[in-house]
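Researcher: Next entry: GNAT family N-acetyltransferase (Solibacillus palustris).
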Amino acid sequence: MEEFKVKQIKNLFYVDLNQLVKESKEEGFRFLERLVNDYKKGTNNFNKPGESLYGVFNKEGVLIAIGRLNIDPFSNQQKIGRLRRFYVTRDYRRNGLGRLLLKKIICDAKNYYKVLVLHTDTEQADKFYTSFGFLKENRYPKSTHCLNL
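Model: Predicted structure:
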């Protein structure tokens, strides 16, 4: 795993997301396109306390995975974080990079939140998140999984 680095992305305009966005759209996911559009519009710049965007980069500096941590906009409870826009490119799946990225996000989330929630509608993602201890429950608005931190 030494050839891969998890880095916090401070400015989305300095990162080439084109391949990830293209690939995710081909798979029927539009959430990375929304990530870029929200950032351009300024509606979500992950710049509030407890919010951040992370990327996994290969040794050539190419972004191969991404994930975002936000204050949960759907909950009226404090200390609820939401994992969003989590994506690993096809060529790098099933080799631990998603786990590496999620571990970093969970570690940082513990500094701000008591609970981390997310929404997914794929069986593969469900298995991935439950392997980390997420419970498949819709206890929180617009979420399918939650993890007590």
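Model: Note for the record: The helical segments are 18-26, 31-41, 97-109, 123-130.
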